Amino acid sequence: MGVAIIVAEKKKSVFKTENVLHIFPTCVWRVQLEPEVARAVNQRLRTVLDGMRRAEPQFPLDEPWQSRQDLHLHPDFQELVGHVHDAVENALAYLKVADCTFQFTGGWANMGPPGAAHKLHSHANNFLSCVYYVSAEKGANTINFHDPRLQNQVVIPVVTERTVENAETVNMNVEEGMLLLFPSWLPHSVDPNESSALRISVSFNIMFSQFAETMAQPNW
C-alpha cells in the first residue's frame, strides 16, 4: 500500500516589496595590519612591555597588569599610534564627520596571564576607543560587546539562531595584528584567558581636540 505524500502549497505573498532597514547602527571597525608590519610591531612591543612590567617593584608576573596611560606619547609606540591614527581617520570619514582634528587622550597596555579577565566597562568622555592585539592565542582571542539598549531586554524571545541582530552580547574573535575601533560608550568585556600564554593588547581613547570650542554649542 503506497504512502500518500502531501506537499504543502506555498502561500502566495501579498507583499509588493519587503526589506529590513538597519537604523541607529553601532559600528565596530575591524582593521588587520599587513602580516609583516604586524610581526615587526608586535615583536618590538612585546619586548618594551615586558621591560615595563618587570621594572615595577615586586609586581607578581602571574597577575593581570595594566601600564600607565600615556603610552601614546612613548617613542616606542609611535609606529602603532600612526596606524591607529590612519584607522581613526577612515572611521570618521565613514561616519561623514566634518573635517576636524582629534587627539589621543590615553594609551595603555593590558597583559593578562591565564585566568585573567576584564569586567564590563565603557570609556567615558571620549568619542572612539581602540584596542590593538599584540598577543592573542586561541582561548584568549575574543572580546564581548554588550547591547547598550536596556529596553531591549524587556522581552527576550527564544530564537532558532543567534545573530548580531538578535543577540544581547556579541562575542567577537580577534587575532594578533588586529585593531578594533568602536564608540567609547559601547559596553565591552573580556572573558578569562583560557590559554597558557599572556594576552597582550594596547588600548587608546580618541576625542575631538576642540570639542568645547567648535562642536559643543547648541545646534538648534
Distance between the termini: 79 Å
Tell me the overall shape: globular
Proportion of residues in extended strands: 25-35%
Domain count: 1
Return the string of H and E elements: EHEHEEEEEEEEH
Give a description of the structure:
By secondary structure, the protein is α+β, with helices and mostly antiparallel strands. The protein contains 3 helices and 10 strands; from the N terminus they run βαβαββββββββα. The longest helix has 21 residues, at 35-55. It has a single domain (29-147, 170-206), classed as Jelly Rolls (Sandwich). 20% of the residues lie in helices and 26% in strands. The model has no long low-confidence stretch (mean pLDDT 93).
Write the layout of secondary structure elements.
Layout: E1 29-32, H1 35-55, E2 65-66, H2 78-94, E3 102-112, E4 118-121, E5 128-135, E6 142-146, E7 169-173, E8 178-183, E9 188-190, E10 199-208, H3 211-215
Question: Could you write a compact summary of the structure shown?
Answer:
By secondary structure, the chain is an alpha+beta fold.
Short key terms for the protein model shown above:
3 helices; alpha+beta; 220 residues; six-stranded antiparallel β-sheet; Jelly Rolls; single chain; four-stranded antiparallel β-sheet
